Amino acid sequence: HSSSRKLKRPHRGIQQKFLHTATIKH
What we know:
By secondary structure, this protein is an all-alpha fold. It is built from one helix and no strands.
């Protein structure tokens, strides 16, 4: 399904952004 693939793409970006924020906050 194209929807599943598109959902997986942004999911990775969100995780990376969260990690970046956590690193800065830390």
